[in-house]
Design a protein that fits this description.
The chain is mainly alpha-helical and 70 residues long. 79% of the residues lie in helices and 0% in strands. Helix 2 (13-41) runs antiparallel to helix 3. The longest helix is centred in the middle third of the chain and has 29 residues, at 13-41.
Length: 70
């Protein structure tokens, strides 16, 4: 995901890379927490709660690589 998003910036790449990295880390953490709560409540199976954040970001990165500028 970092290489996909990093290719979009022209100026101030270091600052934007830091902001994107922190934002993605927060979104990943929140996704894991929500999925864990849903799994603990019995709404979704435990294996789905454990893997949902990884699968979400995997799909997001595959879609991003399809549309990356070279």
């Amino acid at each position: 995901i970092a290489s996909v998003v990093g290719s979009r910036f022209q100026k101030n790449i270091l600052l934007m890379s830091l902001l994107v990295s922190l934002s993605l880390a927060v979104v990943y953490y929140i996704t894991g927490m929500v999925a864990g709560l849903l799994a603990a409540a019995g709404t979704i199976p435990p294996w789905a709660g454990a893997w949902s954040g990884f699968v979400f970001f995997l799909v997001l990165s595959i879609i991003g690589f399809r549309y990356v500028r070279t």
